[in-house]
Design a protein that fits this description.
alpha+beta; 2 domains; single chain; 19 helices; Alkaline Phosphatase, subunit A; Methylamine Dehydrogenase, Chain H
Length: about 950
């Protein structure tokens, strides 16, 4: 780390000029929330030499110096910037080669706060981070956890210049090295390839220092441990070698092997000094505070259980009370550090919202800060875009929230100084991303460069810093009302909507929910003909239009075209949570930007944690399902899923739509949701690829969610690009014909058709990953296959006894992989059935949560959390009386170039051939990981698809303005 990014006068002028007022932005894609942040909200511009207008994403932590003169703001997000112009990359070259490595870092922003308005003085790059930052008690140094770099950076102030820079003895290395075969490239900050073993990276998270400056503790998020450093005297440059303590019970006491505890340690607070020092460590997965004596040999002395997931923490000045922000339970838990017991749990929102909502959770509290006089506590509620103000009575009983302060989107940290408050937020509304490209049937002019536009969703969610004077009581009352209005917490369903939904509920007993992958509205339906501007599409951005997706076009035209529907998610990891539970826990909001920027961590949704199937409780059971699983009984024992939402009354991990259905006494059938796909694309121990696994009794589906396990079709293959969705439909149809064609169709059927994701074009070296079968092996063919499967299922229901009593909902889990002229979150949502309007365009700005609430009301279910509790159902897409309907699925003309068993080709239809064959696609995607959703490098894959699908359109120009030419070999292929 160097001082090269010290902000210049010019860059600072750009920074100030680029300040954004989020109060003027459109509603957010989750809850349709409005933003009216208090004070001045400015972006975080690091003043990069090559990208002076770039602003950072995902501010996560802030801290004020002991002297109260300096504010530090830390980012941990998708801060990746592409080199402009792009280098010419050979096929299979990792995307890291296209990054501007010097500028693709995280940052520490250093502000002077001696005046009422923060003044940015310096910006320091840090290649990797994960939330942890703390000042030395002297105020002359601070410490930054290096996240997946597995170290801690020591930043010291130069006494003569007043500038900050990395000290000579920095960083402190934690020494974990690669775990399970997955390593870190220290130069680029990117990951090395995953092998067959379960694989995670080390990750330094929270960091704390004792009040005497002699003891430093780091939470090892990926290793379930802490590392303790000591030095002889404050200010010494000579820290001892780290002492590591595994926090899992079985690692210190063999008699407790397999007992959960201490996993996913995130934050640290230290009480006392020297031999009497004690660390309090938050364990996210096991929902406990682990108490560690930091004497000569660190050891666990107590474990304090909590209902929620313990996030950031703060000790009072006397170190007698520890305040813990607890996600999922929506509380601040107050711990007596003398007795190591919870004194009270303070709700962060319930006392200020309508009584009918008090039972629901979803605020995502993630940090706490005490006022300087310790009479008030401030809590950032990430999902509600506010800071909660809690009055402390001094008795640690009956404390409660007295007001809310509006912030930017997803606040992560709040700091105080001299009557001023500073709040950092992670994201901003994204708006349109017309210069982003995935594939191509003419999306934009020849000069368009889809990578250097930096319009990928995670790149467009910008961080902010708000500063303002602490509001008085009268102001706080007004601000509280504003937050409640912004979050629609006073929402009540209209009488008309109630009547419509009651009629639909009366006539419909079955919902089929089809979840797909990653497309925008313009990418698929932008070519629908418009009359008087509706539907609102941009055909120049349509990459998989009518010729590729005739069924989706037909469904939209026949029923309702939803041309302003937004996905609530940024990417697939949070997308599967929003799409199945209408919420996303804070741990996932914090992890996914790190994972998607290829810095570290793992993809932890759909019941897989660190590539372990936690839907299976024992190590032996996991090994039977996946022989590659290690036999360590302390490897995430039990069935707790760190990424799963809670159900009512803090019932752990039961906050999904199917849990809601089952609680109501209704039944569920699962085709492809929450399955362990780690064995689909491995050279050994792979689950065989089969068109009809039922015929041979081959189990291809191992559930990762305990509640879904009894209701899962074992012959329906999950995410695997090698298998066409045509065969997933065939298995659904087999099960339907055998078990439900004459009656008994479940209230909720979950169907995963995923082939519009694309990938696995041909077998690679050694046979892995396997080739896509039956010639469905190019992007056009895969998207067309997905489209046909959707059409076939709707046709089947239309011709069944369930035609009038069933609604089919179809949506993408996220919209990250395409361009859209309205919003980068806008996506395709389809609804078919007897109660759906015909030939209508509905432009109501619905989102994923509205769709979830609609399915709940159709089935007569209560809300699951704060989000769907205040979401309006999509009542204006329905009629109150059913109409007869039919639907005939039609294969795309592209599919007739495959080996799929299709109906006879219509007379006069010309078979369309893909722009390139599978050999071409396999070569240009060599080295990419298509084994599960979004493990592939998305931006690099987008560039490859652009080149392969543009046809006769010129490729974006080279630096000298000439068009790049395909090689003769590429043309022949």
């Amino acid at each position: 780390m160097t001082n090269k990014f010290q902000i210049s006068a010019l860059a600072f002028a750009v920074f100030v000029a680029g300040a954004f007022a989020q109060s003027t932005t459109p509603a957010l894609p989750n809850l349709g929330q409005d933003l009216t942040p208090l004070g001045t909200l400015v972006p975080l511009n690091p003043g990069l030499p090559d990208s002076p207008d770039w602003t950072a994403t995902h501010a996560v932590s802030s801290v004020v110096s002991p002297q109260g003169d300096v504010l530090l703001v830390l980012t941990s997000g998708y801060n990746r910037i592409f080199t402009n112009p792009l280098p010419q990359l050979a096929p299979g070259t990792p995307l890291l080669a296209a990054f501007n490595r010097a500028e693709s870092s995280e940052h520490v922003f250093i502000y002077d706060i001696t005046t009422s308005t923060p003044v940015l003085k310096q910006v320091l790059p840090v290649i990797n981070t994960f939330s942890g930052i703390v000042f030395d008690p002297s105020g002359e140094a601070f410490y930054v956890s290096g996240g997946p770099s597995d170290n801690v950076h020591i930043i010291a102030k130069n006494a003569s210049t007043g500038l900050w820079g990395e000290s000579a003895n920095s960083p402190l290395n934690l020494g974990h090295g690669p775990l399970g075969g997955l390593g870190l490239n220290a130069t680029s900050g990117g990951l090395l390839p995953i092998n067959e073993q379960v694989a995670v990276t080390p990750c330094a998270a929270g960091v704390a220092i004792s009040s005497d400056g002699r003891t430093l503790v780091v939470a090892n998020f990926g290793n379930d441990s802490i590392t303790v450093f000591n030095r002889a005297y404050p200010g010494s440059a000579n820290w001892s070698a780290g002492k590591e303590l595994d926090l899992r019970p079985g690692k210190s006491n063999p008699a407790q092997a397999g007992v959960p505890g201490g996993e996913y340690p995130f934050w640290v607070a230290i009480k006392g000094t020297g031999a009497n020092a004690t660390a309090y460590v938050s364990s996210l997965r096991d929902r406990e505070i682990v108490v560690v004596s930091l004497g000569r040999t660190p050891s666990v002395t107590a474990r304090i259980p909590l209902k929620g997931q313990p996030n950031k923490m703060a000790l009072n000045r006397a170190q007698s009370l520890l305040y813990v922000a607890a996600d999922q339970s929506d509380t601040v838990d107050v711990i007596d550090t003398a007795k190591n017991a919870v004194l009270e749990s303070i709700p962060v929102i319930a006392t200020l919202i309508p009584t009918r909502l008090a039972q629901y959770r979803g605020a995502n509290p993630n940090s706490v800060t005490l006022s300087q006089d310790e009479t008030q506590l401030y809590v950032t509620n990430g999902n509600l875009n506010c800071v909660a103000v809690i009055a402390l009575r001094g008795s640690s009983s009956n404390d409660h929230v007295i007001g809310l302060i509006p912030t930017g989107w997803y606040p992560n940290s709040v700091s105080l100084n001299s009557g001023n408050m500073y709040v950092v937020n992670a994201k901003s509304p994204t708006g349109p991303n017309k210069d982003f490209c995935y594939g191509g049937y003419g999306p934009g002019p020849p000069t368009r460069n889809c990578m250097t536009a930096n319009e990928y969703n995670p790149q467009r969610t910008k961080a902010g810093l708000a500063s303002f004077a602490l509001p008085d009581a009268a102001q706080l009352a007004t601000l509280t009302s504003q937050v409640i209005a912004n979050d629609h917490l006073s929402f009540t369903e209209s009488d008309n909507d109630k009547a419509v939904m009651a009629a639909v509920h009366q006539g419909v007993q079955h919902v089929i929910f089809i979840l797909k992958e990653n497309r925008t509205y313009d990418q698929i339906l932008g070519d629908l003909p418009a009359v008087n501007g509706k539907p609102d599409g941009d055909p120049s951005l349509t990459e998989f239009g009518q010729a590729v997706t005739p069924n989706e076009h037909n469904i939209a035209r026949t029923f309702v075209t939803l041309d302003h529907f937004l996905d609530s998610a940024e990417v697939s990891v949070d997308g599967w949570l929003w799409s199945t539970s209408a919420q996303c826990p804070d741990v996932v909001e914090r992890e996914w930007p790190i994972t998607y920027s290829y810095r570290g961590l793992s993809v932890e949704s759909e019941g897989i944690n660190r590539n372990i199937n936690v839907g299976i409780p024992t190590a032996a059971g996991r090994q039977r399902a996946n022989p590659l699983t290690p036999d360590d009984p302390d490897l995430l024992p039990g069935q707790t899923d760190i990424a799963a939402p809670d159900g009512p009354e803090n019932e752990i991990n039961t906050g999904y739509l199917w849990d809601n259905v089952l609680r109501a006494g209704l039944n569920v059938r699962n085709y492809g949701f929450f399955l362990d796909g780690t064995r689909y694309n491995t050279p050994t121990n792979a689950i065989p690829l089969s068109r009809n696994p039922f015929a041979t009794g081959t189990v291809v589906a191992y559930p990762t969610n305990a509640a879904l396990t009894p209701y899962t079709d074992p012959y329906f293959r999950g995410f695997d690009n090698a298998l066409p969705d045509f065969y997933r439909f065939a298995e659904w149809q087999r099960d339907f014909n055998a078990n439900y064609s004459r009656g008994g169709l479940p209230a909720l059927s979950l169907v995963r058709f995923m082939h519009d994701h694309t990938g696995n074009f041909m077998a690679g070296a050694g046979g892995a990953p396997p080739a896509a079968i039956d010639g469905v092996n190019t992007p056009e063919l895969m998207v067309a296959d997905n489209d046909y499967a959707v059409g076939l299922l709707i046709q089947k229901i239309a011709n069944s006894i369930y035609a009038n009593s069933t609604l089919i909902f179809v949506v993408e889990d996220d919209a990250q992989d395409g361009a859209d002229h309205v919003d980068s979150h806008r996506t395709v949502a389809l609804v078919a059935g007897a109660y759906v309007k015909r030939g209508a365009v509905v432009s109501t700005p619905y989102n994923t949560i509205n769709l979830i609430r609609t399915m709940e009301e159709v089935l007569g279910l209560p809300p699951m959390n704060l989000n769907d509790a205040v979401a309006a159902p999509m009542a204006d897409i329905f009629n109150t009386n059913p109409s007869s309907w039919s639907f005939t699925a039609a294969p795309s003309a592209y599919l007739y170039s495959t080996k799929l068993l299709l109906p006879p080709k219509p007379v006069g239809m010309a078979v369309l051939k893909p722009a390139h064959n599978a050999k071409y696609w396999a070569r240009v995607t060599r080295g990419m990981n298509f084994s599960d959703a979004d493990l592939v490098d998305p931006a690099g894959f987008n560039r490859i698809l652009w080149k392969g699908l543009m046809g006769n359109k010129p490729y974006p120009p080279t630096p000298n303005g000439g068009e790049q030419e395909e090689s003769g070999r590429e043309k022949r292929e």
